[in-house]
Amino acid sequence: MANKSLEIRFLFPLVLFLVVKLLCVDGKGFNNNGHKIRKGRWEGKLKMNFYHNSCPGAEDIVRQIVWKKVEANRSLAPKLLRVHYHDCFVRGCDASLLLDSVAGKAASEKEARPNLSLSGFEIIDEIKSILEKRCPNTVSCADILTLAARDAVSYEFERPLWNVFTGRVDGRVSLATEAARDLPSAGANFTTLQKLFAESDLDVVDLVALSGAHTIGIAHCGVFGRRLLNFTGKGDTDPSLNPSYASFLKSECSDKSLRLNPSAVVGMDPTGPLAFDSGYFVSLLKNKGLFTSDAALLTDPSAAHIASVFQNSGAFLAQFGRSMIKMSSIKVLTLGDQGGEIRKNCRLVN
């Protein structure tokens, strides 16, 4: 028995190393074994440096503005990333989330309950205003948002963490009802999450990797409070939650009367809400996932194994970049597609 335990101790690092090697991809889309990585449905529609001739320097302008903003306020990184996520899961990455509601018409995606806490729209507006003066009717709001999300996360690394393929145009339809229906919920179980991701051509590896975005940012206690104080309606705590972490969350989320304060906030990653690293997965494997949807990853053997691999920052960052490329290509509209345009103002259709 002792020998077997010793073998496992020595074999696990080797297995982890091999998995990390398989996950790592070079800039040409091949992994370290020379196998071509499957591309998403964006292939042939988007491309690198789309604005090289039509608006030279557009991507540099986006990066410079975003990095300056994030330098002044690090909390903007998770905010812009979240806006991008919420945009892509509803009608695809078409900047429909950026549209304001119009009097007399159905409420826009911004008005959906999951989107009421979103912020950072003014950064996109500022970038769009500058690019419109430089290159009128050229750079889409959808591409600006996709680039801004990448650059916001990349700021702390002082280099782009993944490539952004551009050439999107903006959608003309934005409905709150669709956002309420299509956005993954913080209270979702694994089956529901897997179904929603599969509908967007994202697999279980993407699901786990993209969940790792919870390594930065904060959450309001009202979103997960039921896990702490009333999990089954009997004033109990979710038994899957690490007891010491549950106690910490209760202290942060309760008022003086020991009742839930839904407006209180905590970091989504207990190892720290600002550093984009594998801390989320380290915490998750200790049953310190903040949301029910985080804990749900451990209920599926494949997802749990992938999460254990992503405790290695190199493996996580490599796959997160690839999964972001796939996510940012969901149902993209490009020039010539029906229902698309280059908006002059990201908040309004032309």
TrEMBL record:
Disulfide bonds: 55-135, 88-93, 141-346, 221-253
GO molecular function: heme binding; lactoperoxidase activity; metal ion binding
Family: Belongs to the peroxidase family. Ascorbate peroxidase subfamily. Belongs to the peroxidase family. Classical plant (class III) peroxidase subfamily.
Any one Gene Ontology cellular component term annotated for this protein: vacuole
Source organism of the structure: Arabidopsis thaliana x Arabidopsis arenosa
Cofactor binding summary note: Binds 2 calcium ions per subunit. Binds 1 heme b (iron(II)-protoporphyrin IX) group per subunit.
Site for Transition state stabilizer, residues: 82
Record flagged with keyword Metal-binding: yes
Protein name: Peroxidase
Extent of the signal sequence: 1-27
Binding site for heme b: 214
Main localisation: secreted
Catalytic activity: 2 a phenolic donor + H2O2 = 2 a phenolic radical donor + 2 H2O
Keywords: Calcium, Disulfide bond, Glycoprotein, Heme, Hydrogen peroxide, Iron, Metal-binding, Oxidoreductase, Peroxidase, Secreted, Signal
Function: Removal of H(2)O(2), oxidation of toxic reductants, biosynthesis and degradation of lignin, suberization, auxin catabolism, response to environmental stresses such as wounding, pathogen attack and oxidative stress. These functions might be dependent on each isozyme/isoform in each plant tissue.
GO biological-process terms attached to the record: hydrogen peroxide catabolic process; response to oxidative stress
Location(s), subcellular: Secreted; Vacuole
EC number in record: 1.11.1.7
Location of the active site: 86 (proton acceptor)
UniProt binding sites for Ca(2+) 1: 87, 90, 92, 94, 96, 109
